[in-house]
Write a structure and sequence with these properties.
The protein has about 260 residues and is an alpha/beta fold. The protein contains 7 helices and 14 strands. The chain has helices spanning about 55-60, 80, 90-95, 105-115, 175-180, 205-215, 235-240; strands at about 1-5, 35-40, 45-50, 70, 100, 130-135, 140, 145-155, 155-165, 165-170, 190, 220-225, 245, 250-255. The relative contact order is 0.17.
């Protein structure tokens, strides 16, 4: 299997509109971050998208991706769901509704934001989704076992997802001891890290991530959901402890 980072930025993306800091004006492609999303390719070459934000169209085109077999949604914030309408060309081409897997609460929000996709009589050109409400327990889809990992993002629960010995977690500020058990003995752990300093009410910052790395001891840890406050990629990546790396858009991992 493999995982490709389609986007590694926060809800504002990097560069941030109107910002002239050294990160936002950097010419290094690794400092340009679309909203966070990944594509997992299974051993049978099926495509599992995790989150579908406002940059979905651009991400698919830039990465030469043509299909989405299913989508896993972490939570209902717009930077993770608002691109769902842009799945229309894939739906038209396949002639099938795209299966979405998410919390009951998230399914409710998706129906509210895209009511035309769930109308009894849809107008021509509307997207179509097949909603699957999941709980915090492993499930099987596309011959792949997926284990949700429940984390806390400010005051809401968010799902991360684990495949084999890789786990992807975005928009987390707290992980319970019970859920940490799912994250031990991993080859790859991917965690959100919004900035280096100043505690955030909803996201991990760098000291939090380093503590989790030391506690959980994955072989490798990659940071995602990165803001311009974390610093320049080429400088900050070299200063991280061994085993911790900054992810960047287009990075591909085999697992």
């Amino acid at each position: 299997m493999k995982l490709k980072f389609l986007g590694t930025g926060t809800s504002q993306g990097v560069p941030v509109i109107g910002c002239t800091c050294e990160v936002c004006t950097s010419e290094n492609p690794k400092d340009k971050r679309l909203r966070s999303s990944v594509m997992v390719t299974t051993e049978e070459n099926k495509k599992i998208l995790i989150d579908c934000g406002p940059d979905f169209r651009q991400q698919m085109l830039s990465n030469n991706e043509h299909t989405v077999d299913i989508a896993l949604i972490t939570h209902e914030h717009n930077d993770h769901v608002i691109g769902l309408d842009d799945m229309r060309p894939l739906i038209f081409k396949s002639g099938k509704d795209v299966p979405l897997y998410c919390y009951h609460r998230v399914a409710y929000e998706i129906k509210n934001r895209f009511p035309y996709a769930f109308a009894d009589v849809r107008y021509p050109g509307a997207p179509a989704f097949e909603l699957h409400e999941i709980e915090n327990k492993p499930f099987q889809v596309l011959d792949t076992e997926i284990t949700p990992v429940e984390v806390i993002h400010y005051k809401i629960t968010v799902f991360g997802y684990k495949f084999k010995k890789l786990a992807y977690i975005t928009d987390a500020g707290f992980i319970s001891e019970t859920e940490k058990e799912k994250l031990k003995n991993l080859d790859v752990l991917i965690l959100n890290c919004i900035r280096k300093f100043d505690p955030h009410p909803a996201h991990f910052i760098l000291p939090d991530v380093i503590r989790l790395f030391e506690e959980l001891q994955p072989k490798k840890l990659f940071l995602t959901h990165i803001s311009h406050h974390l610093g320049l990629h080429d400088i900050e990546d070299k200063q991280l402890p061994p085993g911790i790396h900054l992810a960047y858009d287009g990075l591909e991992l085999n697992f």
